[in-house]
Structure formats: structure tokens, C-alpha cells
Design goal:
The chain contains five helices and eleven strands; from the N terminus they run βαβαβαββαβαβββββ. The protein has 234 residues and is an alpha/beta fold.
């Protein structure tokens, strides 16, 4: 049983895209960190999997490896993940897709998937995303601190900008941050837009691709937040 007060260290691991080899290589370093909760904001897998492996098979391997850290794992699916993985996350007890979980003073809520021009596997409509986040938030609204987790980043921030300079994030995600005022809002999806930003008093983070060594580390103490994107190679 895990007990938390007003202090928590969160590690963010995103956009693995089925890269099991690098995942395993970096996990030994992750184990050295003082971590309370692991947050995974989607794209565990990719459309092209090793021969004889389904995306669900690979997701199970990743979850098994995450569980070796013996810390709570919380996840939403990415747009490339399959809809079957939503049930897998539920069965594994790690899902915050359209739902919330309270750990100590911290309420985690979220919704996965992302709109793209490519017709990928999980692409919620704005209405689905809006009501999914609302329902999830309502499950943690009494928690002292709230943490929002989505795959798609909020619009008009440093963490939703593609290489051309165009902002491609979600207005719905941004509106949820502005309305609910979480302490932290974690997202992924736009690999090149890794980093942090702020919307009002909310720290925004996109931790980048974990197989490239990037991860997020968030330290919360008495409502004060310090979050950085770090690299295990450096």
C-alpha cells in the first residue's frame, strides 16, 4: 500500500512506440531515481510491430517492465495505440482514460488519443474529449491537488508546436486546464515539442520520446511544482 502526503515525485514516460530494446536499456537508470508515481501519456506501441507480436502483446511487455519499479502506474492511450488497449489498461489497473484516481492528496485524471490527419486508431472527437475529461475530473475534484494527463497537448503552447512552427494541439485540452486549474498538465504526441510551459498557474509538460532517452521529472511539495524534461543519455 502506498501512502503519500503533500509531497510527490512523478516520472513521465511517453511515446515509447514499441521500442522495447531502448526501453529496457534505459530502465536500469530509471530505477535509480526517487519516484513515487509513473505517468504514461500514451503511444506505448506503433503500427509496425515485430513479427508475430501484436500491439497488445508489446503493451503487455511494457506494462510488465513498468510494474517492476513497484510504484503506481497511471496511463492513457495514444492515438497509435489500439482500442483493445483501453481494456488492457483497465484490466491492469493503470487506466485514467476518462476516469480519475486519487493517490494520497493527488487526483490524477485524463483522456487519451489525439486527432490527426492520418486516421489513426484512437482519435476522439472534441465532444468525446471534453466530456471524457469532465467525467474524469469529477472523480478527483475533492483531491487537494489535481494532475491532468492527456495524449494530445494543449493548443497554443510550447509543447504543441511542430517543426514548421504551427501549433497543432487541442483547444479542448487547453480549455480543461483553464477551467479545472490542475497543478500539472502532462501530455505527449508532438515529439519535437518536448519541454515545459505554463497556462495560468498550471505547469505544462511534454516529456518527448522515451526511446531517445527523454523523460519528465516532476517534484511537488506543498503545492510548489518543479518540473523538467531530462535525458538519460546526457
Amino acid at each position: 500500500m502506498f501512502k503519500f502526503g503533500v509531497m510527490m515525485n512523478i516520472i513521465v514516460i511517453s511515446d515509447i512506440h514499441g521500442d522495447i530494446e531502448n526501453l529496457f536499456n534505459y530502465f536500469d537508470k530509471i530505477k535509480e531515481l526517487n519516484v513515487d508515481v509513473i505517468v504514461c501519456p500514451g503511444d506505448f506501441t506503433d503500427a509496425n510491430m515485430p513479427k508475430s507480436f501484436t500491439q497488445e502483446d508489446v503493451a503487455k511487455l511494457i506494462i510488465k517492465e513498468l510494474n517492476l519499479l513497484k510504484k503506481p502506474v497511471l496511463a492513457v492511450p495514444g492515438n497509435v495505440d489500439t482500442k483493445n488497449m483501453i481494456k488492457l489498461f483497465e484490466d491492469e489497473g493503470i487506466s485514467i482514460h476518462g476516469k480519475g484516481k486519487i493517490i494520497g492528496d493527488f487526483g490524477f485524471y485524463g483522456y487519451g488519443g489525439a486527432y490527426t490527419p492520418f486516421e489513426t486508431n484512437i482519435e476522439p472527437t472534441d465532444e468525446e474529449l471534453k466530456f471524457g475529461l469532465k467525467n474524469a475530473f469529477n472523480e478527483v475534484k475533492n483531491a487537494k491537488y489535481k494532475i491532468q494527463v492527456t495524449h494530445t497537448p494543449p493548443a497554443g503552447t510550447r509543447v504543441d508546436m511542430i517543426q514548421s512552427g504551427l501549433h497543432v494541439g487541442s483547444n479542448i485540452v487547453r480549455e480543461a486546464i483553464e477551467s479545472y486549474g490542475p497543478l500539472v498538465a502532462i501530455s505527449a504526441h508532438i515529439h519535437e515539442a518536448r519541454g515545459t510551459d505554463n497556462i495560468k498557474n498550471t505547469l505544462i509538460m511534454n516529456s518527448g520520446r522515451f526511446p531517445e532517452g527523454y523523460f519528465g521529472f516532476i517534484k511537488i511539495e506543498n503545492g510548489s511544482v518543479n518540473g523538467k524534461v531530462l535525458n538519460l543519455i546526457e
